Each structure stands twice: as structure tokens, then as C-alpha cells.
Q: What sequence folds into this?
């Protein structure tokens, strides 16, 4: 299965949740902080408890880079815990001039062997193409992000009358015609905004941050995608899942939360 | 000395060159490829030969990340070779939602202890602020990059009639009023473009890629900055310095090239 097929197969199985492993040693349950390799212990437990219920895992590179080389080792070790049929996303927001982007692409797709990556499109096509050249992988371009700062540049109106992020979405669709492996990141904090733009996504797979701790509603997002008969999306949940419980039962709590949400999604899609 | 003082002291000493350590095992002289830790050996030799002539070194993270955890170790080991008075830039083009940018900032400024970082501004102020909070460090925001893809989004005309990159420069100046530690990346491939925009940079330190292998002229860039009486800029040169010579004398060749360019800059500033 290539990356796109992996997402679709999970969605067809009514699994839409991507668990963000934004693991911060200062936020994991204090009872496990003194474990050897505590971050790895935590990730392993979360994965073991949730792997049969999730569609994907997303590794937020920042939380590992802060630990230097050891952090990169933790990424490798975490990936080893994830069954190969589950979709894994390198959330690293990379992008640079072409010869540099080639190296970033090689890092996430060859060295670490992720299925997908998040790429910041600001530097334009030649900064993105080295990722797209990996035909069995997926490259999620940032369309509209879920943070306050999305207002600063992404929502600027450009001369054509559309917003910058809407123009980026159009370009992504254009680039996707050639490579068939482009996806979009679109913040789901504001449902109206998602509703207004969902048609423009065409058939591109969508990664949706902004639900959970950042304020977006899981149910509403699922209902919206259902109403458009779309089954190629991932709702990312990080803090609201992995830090759901601060006891030794954090893994079970994470699992139960996902099962609850899966049931909601199932119900919505079968209505 | 904080980061800004370091740049200024080097410029006052007529040193304007930043050497980009984009070290690729496939491009270093074949005679040293079989050295143990060949990339480190190469960087060490380049640094030893050039450290009294350069203003700064810039580490392009992609070329190290491609090697996984070992690559991050190489960054640490390379930094150890650089004297503390020389300015060191983490060229990592990071940027994400605030709690994630905090981790990226902590990684480059605390774990690795760089003086400066390059940040992609696309996600807006809250993605940049965690970097700016390090008051003794410098954060270079991407204004206009030196690649072809800069045309795709950075040069779009926005509603106000200016180009997106010009608006980003204005915002950078606004943010700099508070933190006094903002810089700009501005591609020097096209001299006319640089000339048209140099006044808008205000007093922000400028990192200039695009000279050398990418086509921009060193002499012209120095003359332009001289004509504006500006001494807070760094001209980045990577491939044209570090791969100048493919023999065992690569380090001496790099040194001679920098001395030649320093002499040109000196001549221009004393004319």
C-alpha cells in the first residue's frame, strides 16, 4: 500500500483520528517521568493502547529536536513501535531551496521512512517538488493553519480577490495533477471557514489540526465531511488524547477517548 | 556580546562573509570520503582554515538531518570547532504554532546554543514570537528567498498594492520594535530587487543568500550596502567556498577565496 491507499483504507474502516505524538517530558504523567527513556516509554504505551483504533500517528519534530541527537533517536524508536499499515506523518513543516529540500525529503522519506510530511509552501514550487517526487509518499502542504497567526499572512487578500491560503490551495491542486500525492493541512478551529473552503480541496487528502485543545469540534468536522461524501481526511488530536489522564492509566484513557470518538464518527457516517 | 553585537563587530572589522556549511558527503573531496567522520573532518578543516576570515557560519540543518541522530551529533561537534566570538546561524527555516515553535526555539537556542536562526514567517506572529523571546539571539525571518519558487507566493501582489514579501518586511520591522532582535533573509540573486527594497529593511540585519553558485554578484552586493552606509549584513556563500577545490587542499582553497573576497569588500568600503 502506498501512502494514499493507507489513508483511504483507514477511512473506509471508519478510522479518522490521527494521534499527534507531541510528547513533552514535562507534561507526561509524573509517575512515569523517572522511567528510563520516559518519552519512549510513554509513546510505546500510547501506541500499544491505541494502534488498533487510530488511522495515523503524527510525530511533531519540535518536541524531539529539543533533545538533540537523542530526540532523533526517540523518533526512530517510536516509529519502530508503530505497525506498518498505520499511516505515519512527519510533522516537521519543512521547506527550503530545491537542493536543500531534497535533503529534507530524503531525511523524512528515506532515513526515517515516514508515509507523509507536512511542508511549508512559502518558498514555492521548487521547494516542494523534491518531496512530491516520492510518488508513494504524501506531502501535506500548509493551506490554512489553526493558530491565531494564520490571520497575519495566510488570510491576506491578494490582487485576484481571493485570500493567500485559497490561492495556495489552488496551486496545490494544480501540482497534484502531476504527482497525485499532494495533501493539505487545514485548521479546523473555525467550522465556517472549513465549510466555505471544503469544495476547493477537490479530492486532496486533508489533515485537520485545531480540534480538541485548540477548540474545534470533532463531531462538527466529521458531519461536514460526511455531508460532502468525503472519506479522505484525518482529524489530528494531540494534547486532548495523550494527556487525557495524568495517572498510570494514561494509555487506557487515551484508548477510551479514541474509541468514544470513533463511535461518534461511525454513528455520523451511518446516519 | 549578544548576537547583534557579534554581527556588528565582525562587519566593523570588514568581515561580511557567512560560510554555509551545507556539507554533503557526496560532494566533499573524494580523497577524504573514507576518513572516519568524514563530514566532521571536512567541517573542522574548513573552520580551522577560515575562522579568522569569516563573520559567520551557517549550518543548513537539512544536510545533517538526512543522516538521522548522527547528523544532529555532527551539528554539535561542528559547533564545538567554532570560536565563540564567531556568529553561528541555525539555517533550519522553522516555524509552527506557538507551543511547537517554543520547542524549536529551545532546540536551536538552548540545546545547540546558536546565535541566530532562520524562521519561515508564513504561520504568523505567534509562530515567530517564541524565537524573538530570546533577547540575546537573532531571528532572521524569510523576506524574499533566492530561489525560483519565490515568484509563486512571496511576490504575489496583495490588496494594498505591495508584494507579500514587502508586507512581511514591514511586519518584521514592527515586531522588531519590541524585541530588537529581528533580522531578514533577502535573496541577492537579483540586484535590482535588492536595490529597490534595501531602504525598507530599516536597520534590520540582513542575511543574503543567492550569491555565488546561485548567481548573485558579491562585489555588487557589497557596493550597494556601502552606498547605503550599512554595516549589518552577511553575505552567505556555501558551495562556491566549501567545494571550491576537490583536492586535499580544499581548506586552503576556501581560505584563499574568502581572503580574496574580503579584500574586495575592504577595497569597496575604503573607496
A:
Amino acid at each position: 500500500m502506498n501512502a494514499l491507499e493507507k489513508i483511504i483504507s483507514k477511512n473506509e474502516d471508519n478510522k479518522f483520528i490521527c494521534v499527534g505524538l507531541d510528547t513533552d517530558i514535562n507534561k507526561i504523567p509524573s509517575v512515569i517521568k523517572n522511567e528510563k527513556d520516559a518519552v519512549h516509554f510513554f509513546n510505546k504505551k500510547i501506541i500499544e493502547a491505541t494502534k488498533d483504533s487510530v488511522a495515523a500517528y503524527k510525530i511533531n519534530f519540535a518536541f524531539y529536536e529539543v533533545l538533540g541527537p537523542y530526540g532523533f533517536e526517540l523518533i526512530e524508536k517510536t516509529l519502530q513501535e508503530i505497525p506498518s499499515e498505520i499511516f505515519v506523518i512527519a510533522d516537521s513543516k519543512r521547506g527550503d531551496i530545491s537542493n536543500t529540500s531534497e535533503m529534507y525529503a530524503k531525511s523524512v522519506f528515506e532515513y526515517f521512512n515516514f508515509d507523509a510530511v507536512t511542508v511549508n509552501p512559502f518558498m514555492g514550487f521548487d521547494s516542494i517538488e523534491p518531496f512530491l517526487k516520492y510518488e508513494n509518499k504524501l506531502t501535506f502542504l500548509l493551506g490554512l493553519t489553526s493558530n491565531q497567526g494564520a490571520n497575519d499572512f495566510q488570510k491576506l487578500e491578494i490582487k485576484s480577490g481571493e485570500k493567500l491560503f485559497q490561492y495556495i490551495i489552488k496551486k496545490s491542486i494544480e501540482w497534484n495533477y502531476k504527482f497525485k500525492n499532494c495533501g493539505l493541512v487545514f485548521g479546523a478551529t473555525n467550522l465556517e471557514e472549513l465549510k466555505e473552503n471544503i469544495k476547493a480541496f477537490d479530492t486532496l487528502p486533508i489533515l485537520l489540526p485545531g480540534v480538541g485543545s485548540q477548540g474545534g469540534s470533532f463531531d462538527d468536522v466529521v458531519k461536514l465531511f460526511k455531508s460532502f461524501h468525503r472519506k479522505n481526511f484525518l482529524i489530528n488530536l494531540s494534547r486532548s488524547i495523550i494527556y487525557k489522564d495524568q495517572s498510570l492509566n494514561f494509555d487506557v484513557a487515551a484508548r477510551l477517548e479514541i474509541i468514544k470518538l470513533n463511535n461518534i464518527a461511525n454513528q455520523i457516517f451511518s446516519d
